[in-house]
């Protein structure tokens, strides 16, 4: 696909912003997503275009189903999520492959090699293969924009949903993109069609169409210019690569060796690969995570090296490519200095801190969930035992308690955020009530979707643009699920939290505690004056350090031994006063 060389309208863009721009230029009308790093900014940028209706859906499954509905209505639509979100959306994804698309349907999925903010580093290319869907894989922001537009064209040409696979480095790196005007697309008129009803009789016919479509897409893969050969000066090696791996190979070798860059990662070409192999002495596949390209080459009978040279775990880099090729001379300019570690920590004033301190004090088994509150597992709180995926805390606690009985029910809780509860916690709570475990669920309501950057959700009362929207009442929702014991606590009040947790653990029926306090970083949340340390009262016992607040430290005063005193950073302290409840000497004042 030819790049737009119009130099009059160019902009430096993040990959995510370029994806949103591509949706705009392609005439996309509808975007539904659930926020998840590193994909979140795609939808946050798309909502800035008035021509595109954008929304935050309760979860990725709902988002994909909504986008598919817009496609069925004849409009171009998109859906965005991170790689683990595609797991949630997998159920409709496979059936949508059989049904096909009407208006162009693009599913953006952002992988996270290296697990910078994820619980695993799965390779989403497996989904394209399993669901028999085309997948495009851009390597920079300019390609993100172009491939997004192309994805809509492929979707309509082949009547299929199209996966657009990004990764963290593409999403969050910047490069120059060339801008074009929006192309308004005439919607396809809706027509009733029984072949879209996936009864077995229709599904069997649909599977035949899917296999035929794959053959056609494979032929397309042979000719599309997003699968391109860059001829090098030497034929010793030939590299087959894609995405950011292509950038690493180019940075290390430039035009020294030939490269076959794959932009359509599924289905892959066959003849083009075979022809390329004839032009080089040794084939090398460079790809992150699983050997998808390498295995395809092996099925074609090609002799290739890939994972024998490069790791199957984590991100690649210029240095790793150079190391894998065992070159005698250093080519790349990779940074060799060790970068100091910066461990994640809950923010000063985080409303979750007091709750986790209390759970640790009581000695509860804590079944955790996905959110910034997962940091409650770290020292010094160490107050989380298990984390699986979105919503798993509630249903997992039910299974845990059913397996171990009453003793477990009296000493275990699930913790889940307000957004995550709406995402996939409701059904778990239904299971608890319906199948009768006296489980205690704590909903951490911080009035926002915190971990991914303060996106609205159905419990906040605002939509994606910040306009007033219907607010889901968590208390009423839990009561509607037949939970009789529902109570609200302020996590800044440690005595209130401890009393509530102990009482609900002792109850002989399901219960819900809503720990309600807005995120300390939320706009509009009032910051109290920072606390100070009365050094005459402080004995340096370190009790205030037990909550792990980054605003508090204990240091030797004036470098004198035996003069340990607490120190509060006034630039971080929000005056929440949780620490004052730990100090027996009243040394923390404010």
Please describe what this structure looks like.
This protein has 4 domains: 10-223, 3-Layer(aba) Sandwich (Rossmann fold); 227-324, Rossmann fold (3-Layer(aba) Sandwich), CATH 3.40.50; 351-516, 3-Layer(aba) Sandwich (Rossmann fold), CATH 3.40.50.970; 532-589, Alpha-Beta Plaits (2-Layer Sandwich). It is 34% helix and 18% strand. The protein has 19 helices and 23 strands. The strands form 6 sheets. A 7-stranded mixed sheet has the order 3-2-4-5-7-6-12, sandwiched between helices. A 5-stranded mixed sheet has the order 9-11-10-13-14, sandwiched between helices. The termini are far apart.
Describe this protein with a few key phrases.
alpha/beta, 19 helices, seven-stranded mixed sheet, five-stranded mixed sheet, Rossmann fold, 4 domains, 590 residues, single chain
Numbering strands along the chain, what is their spatial order in the largest sheet?
A: 3-2-4-5-7-6-12
CATH topology of the largest domain: Rossmann fold
Name of the CATH homologous superfamily of the largest domain: Thiamin diphosphate (ThDP)-binding fold, Pyr/PP domains
Give the overall shape, derived from the CA principal axes.
globular
- Average per-residue pLDDT, rounded, comes to 94
Rg (CA only)? 27 Å
Q: Give the structural class.
A: alpha/beta
């Amino acid at each position: 696909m030819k790049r737009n060389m119009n130099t009059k309208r160019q902009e430096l863009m993040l990959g995510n912003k370029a994806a949103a721009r591509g949706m705009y230029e392609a005439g996309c009308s509808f975007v539904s997503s659930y926020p998840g790093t590193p994909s979140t900014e795609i939808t946050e940028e798309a909502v800035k275009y008035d021509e595109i209706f954008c929304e935050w859906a309760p979860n990725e499954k709902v988002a994909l189903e909504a986008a598919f509905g817009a496609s069925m209505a004849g409009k171009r639509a998109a859906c965005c999520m991170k790689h683990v979100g595609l797991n949630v959306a997998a159920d409709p994804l496979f059936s949508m492959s059989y049904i096909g698309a009407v208006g162009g349907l693009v599913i953006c999925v952002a992988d996270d090699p290296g697990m910078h903010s994820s619980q695993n580093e799965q390779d989403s290319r497996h989904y394209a293969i399993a669901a028999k869907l085309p997948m495009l894989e851009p390597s920079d922001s300019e390609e993100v924009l172009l491939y997004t537009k192309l994805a809509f064209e492929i979707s309509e040409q082949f009547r299929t949903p199209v996966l657009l696979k990004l990764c963290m480095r593409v999403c969050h790196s910047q490069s120059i993109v060339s801008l074009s005007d929006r192309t308004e697309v005439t919607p396809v008129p809706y027509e009733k069609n029984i072949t879209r009803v996936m009864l077995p009789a229709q599904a069997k016919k649909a599977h035949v169409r899917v296999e035929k479509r794959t053959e056609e897409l494979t032929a397309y893969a042979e000719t599309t210019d997003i699968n391109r050969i860059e001829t090098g000066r030497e034929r010793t090696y030939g590299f087959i690569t894609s995405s950011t791996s292509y950038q690493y190979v180019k940075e290390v070798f430039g035009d020294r060796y030939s490269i076959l860059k794959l932009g359509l990662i599924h289905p892959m070409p066959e003849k083009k690969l075979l022809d390329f192999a004839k032009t080089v002495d040794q084939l090398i596949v460079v790809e992150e995570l699983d050997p998808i390209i390498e295995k395809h080459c092996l099925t074609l009978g090609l002799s290739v090296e890939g994972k024998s040279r490069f790791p199957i775990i984590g991100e690649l880099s210029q240095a790793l490519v150079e190391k894998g090729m065992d070159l005698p001379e250093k080519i790349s300019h990779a940074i060799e200095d060790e970068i100091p570690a910066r461990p994640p920590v809950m923010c000063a004033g985080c409303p979750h801190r007091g709750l986790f301190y209390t759970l640790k004090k009581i000695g509860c088994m804590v079944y955790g969930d996905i959110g910034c509150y997962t940091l409650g597992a770290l020292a010094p709180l160490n107050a989380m035992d298990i984390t699986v995926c979105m919503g798993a805390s509630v249903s997992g606690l039910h299974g845990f308690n059913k397996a171990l009985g009453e003793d477990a029910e009296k000493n275990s809780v699930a913790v889940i955020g307000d957004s995550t509860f709406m995402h996939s916690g409701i059904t778990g709570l239904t299971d608890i009530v319906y199948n009768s475990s006296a489980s205690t669920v704590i909903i951490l309501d911080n009035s926002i979707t915190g971990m991914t950057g303060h996106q609205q959700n159905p419990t906040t009362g605002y939509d994606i643009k910040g306009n007033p929207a219907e607010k889901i009442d968590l208390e009423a929702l839990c009561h509607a699920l037949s939970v009789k014991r529902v109570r609200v606590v302020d996590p800044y009040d440690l005595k209130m939290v401890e009393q509530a947790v102990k009482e609900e653990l002792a109850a002989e029926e399901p219960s819900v505690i809503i720990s309600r306090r807005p995120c300390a970083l939320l706009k509009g949340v009032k910051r109290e004056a920072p606390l100070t340390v009365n050094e005459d009262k402080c004995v340096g016992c370190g009790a205030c350090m037990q909550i792990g607040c980054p605003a508090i430290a204990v240091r030797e005063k004036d470098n004198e031994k035996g003069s340990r005193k607490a120190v509060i950073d006034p630039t971080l302290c929000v005056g929440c006063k949780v620490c004052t409840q730990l100090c027996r000497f009243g040394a923390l004042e404010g």
